Amino acid sequence: MSAAEGVVSRNPQTEGPKEGAVDIQSPSPADKQKKKHERCAQCNARVGIASSFRCKCGEVFCSAHRYPDMHNCSFDHFAAAQNKISKANPVVSGSKVTAI
User: Fold this and answer.
1) Does residue 64 sit within a domain?
2) Is the pLDDT at 67 greater than 70, yes or no?
3) Domains contained in the chain, number
């Protein structure tokens, strides 16, 4: 057996990273994405932490469009309130008494 036959050549480009190795070239996801500011879904105005309002329909609105009638909300507030009341107040019925 010659020296050339016993040597196995390794190509670092075709092999995966070794355990414990850190890939320096790929940035972390936090570095890749810049922090996006939230915007009002109705007027596209930039809203901050104190001036943003999240509606039950799932969108974020500014102080001018925070009410459901101002942004044509798709969430049915009336049905949600009826369901909440019906769950909070169970039906109470008395036991039937036989007449003597």
Assistant:
1) yes
2) yes
3) 1
